[in-house]
Amino acid sequence: xxxxxxxxxxxxxxxxxxxxxxxxxxxxxxxxxxxxxxxxxxxxxxxxxxxxxxxxxxxxxxxxxxxxxxxxxxxxxxxxxxxxxxxxxxxxxxxxxxxxxxxxxxxxxxxxxxxxxxxxxxxxxxxxxxxxxxxxxxxxxxxxxxxxxxxxxxxxxxxxxxxxxxxx
Amino acid sequence: xxxxxxxxxxxxxxxxxxxxxxxxxxxxxxxxxxxxxxxxxxxxxxxxxxxxxxxxxxxxxxxxxxxxxxxxxxxxxxxxxxxxxxxxxxxxxxxxxxxxxxxxxxxxxxxxxxxxxxxxxxxxxxxxxxxxxxxxxxxxxxxxxxxxxxxxxxxxxxxxxxxxxxxxxxxxxxxxxxxxxxxxxxxxxxxxxxxxxxxxxxxxxxxxxxxxxxxxxxxxxxxxxxxxxxxxxxxxxxxxx
Lengths: 168, 241
Description:
The complex is a heterodimer of chains A (about 170) and B (about 240).
Chain A: H1 6-25, H2 30-51, H3 61-90, E1 99-104, H4 110-122, E2 126-132, E3 135-140, H5 148-154, H6 157-167
Antiparallel strand pairs in A: 1-3, 2-3
Chain B: H1 2-29, H2 40-52, H3 57-65, H4 67-87, E1 93-94, H5 103-125, H6 134-151, H7 159-184, H8 191-194, H9 212-235, E2 237-238
Antiparallel strand pairs in B: 1-2
């Protein structure tokens, strides 16, 4: 993966930080805007080097559209999975079959891997224990398929199809 | 024998603490709760807006009415940081951590760092409007650097730059006070508000509060760099040549 130019990385960091500032202040008062622009420029100057490797290409409309669709998709998966765990807790026989499985991912980007790991952890029933290259070690409350391919099909694939567009 | 003595010591200290606790409780029982006992406080609340331009009365007290205390606190922090550096001074000190954080930790820290920094700045610039100010803002920024230190085994702050910035910020604070002395006749006189009347029409918006935002920006920078320096000093270990 090639690194974007410094200018593009700086601008991307500046834009993201400025958007966060707008949410923080929740006002479009010109005074707040001036200070926000100055502060964002300073923060971006200090941190763009570690914040991003791809720069402005992160803001491709297709990526943003997928990211916006991903939010409700992910929230729905989270609600379903939480209800599933509640069912397991309340069920008198406690139908659990825990184990640690290995999954493979096709994601190459570090941020994408982080997003995948967090998505897996936040949908209850699965917790990411460690990431090693393209291998994920996941604790699963109800192991349905302990092979690498099978587990990937159940755990990582549903998120990957979105994350691949957003981060690759 | 030793056991009996240590038991006795423990018993004695429990009794002593109980006596002190009872004593303090008796003293506090005489202070009426929920009654209006404000003497100076009332003056602050009634005059804070036209005298300092700050909406947040706490910052007005800390920076304006009782500015010397804050200058003292900044000095205390400076001495603490210098003291740590002096105590841990060695010729060659390096980071010797062995285990790199996992990918989730390192990538997450990289992503969070700008936001922590921005939020710290947000806290100190809005000191005269919202709770917070220079010290919490600076501490928040230092937290960002601590996060980087804990996530990466080789990360180091740029020392020279940090030490110079810290000194300059402290000096500028004193300088702002000295300008007040020249204009208004006493140290830490709020010249931006009282003499220039800057921001008088902006009460409650960002460009108000006299020199409070200026001083809190300086304090935020100073505290942020200072605490980061302390973290850096404490995380490094001596290396044999």
